[in-house]
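Lab notebook: predicted structure, single chain.

Context: the supervisor wants predicted structures on file for every construct in the current expression panel, including those that have not yet been purified. This is the next one on the list. No modifications to the sequence; it matches the entry in the shared construct table.
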Amino acid sequence: MEKNNQQQLKRTMTSRHITMMALGGAIGAGLFKGSSAAIDMAGPSVLIAYLLGGIILLFVMQGLAEMAVRNKEARTFRDLVESVLGKYPAYFLDWIYWKMWVLNIAAESVVAAIFIQYWLPEYPIWILALSVSVLVTAINLLSVKIFAETEYWLALIKITVIIVFIIAGLILLLVSFGHHSAVGFSNLTSHGGFFPNGSMGLIAAMLVVIYSYGGTEIIGITLAETKNPEKVVPKAVRSTLIRIVTFYLLPFFIIVSLIPWNEVNGVPESPFVMVFKMIGIPGADHIMNAVVLLAIISSMNSGLYGSSRVLYTQAVDGRVPKIFAQLSKRNVPVYAILMCTLALYVGVIFSLYAGSKTFDFLMGSLGYTVLFIWLIIAIAHLKSRKKQSSNSSVYEVKWYPYTTWIAIIALSTILIGIIFTTSIIVTGITLAIYIFITLTYLWKGRHQ
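Prediction complete. Output recorded below exactly as produced.
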């Protein structure tokens, strides 16, 4: 391999690719599987949780887009953050982001297996998770363009079905036909009220919300492979945010309106499958189950991409062995991808013992990590204006610094609330990982 080939990724991704990739990363297990947990915690008030999460996400992503436009040489988050906050925050962000994705793809391989079990109940979780893991690895080892096209169409399929779900759900809510009577909106208040578990239930659900929206910031990883990032990234941020809030709020509104909130959790199938069963179309539940499965594979696809590119840039900068910077003839960081896929197979081994509970266990730690990633991005954006003078010819956040401060205060408040409402085991394991990352920086990172 030529040296030039080892150090440069090709700019082959367009606006439609990275928009769909961000959607692919964010509309996955958090929506289709995590929805049950969020509804169980907050009841119908989960709608407020997802609205608040969407507003925070908007403010964080606007800051990310502005920093990306101002720093045209940036390849990933590290480059954006290091120039503003220094080496340790950039190092910490890089590794918790990498940890988030490798744990996420492990968790989602198990969720994918759970949905496959809907058809193949006789097969154990670990065999099905292994099959999905091999498939996702193969897709990522192809060229970036093939990966991006695959991700585009997978994301498009699930978005189309969510739209169908919204239309069908509204019909069930508002229209009587045959033996079906319009359900209306009584389920929003008739089972303990709109806030059945009070404000603490709403705060607890925010961990699932933050986890669910996590993945959108993958736009910050695509900088080195995006054509004209200074134009494409702001456009992708705007369109992605509108779609994510729409594709979360409306489906959740339909679910908690159609199904009593206290009947959603504890059922093996996704609430989306439950609603499609209500429609009464033969095989509708199987169709929805298949789409949910594709959605999760799509999210795993984005996750493996994101984690491998973080590892690749670390290798290019000499922070991890250079072998992870080597590209194949198709300009794919093959060794970085293979290293990250190890997490998939660790997840498979873990599922041998924990089974379907693997996802619930990992989701808490992932929620913490997404929250810290957003906090660091927001703080970096707050300070970035001091480093660079204003330039009205490029993208700027309109209500800076107010929107960024709102995001920082909201995320800090959610963090405090989550500490008091989350399992101490999950919190302890997450803290141990963060301490380990910090210790590796003190031991090695400072001398790089």
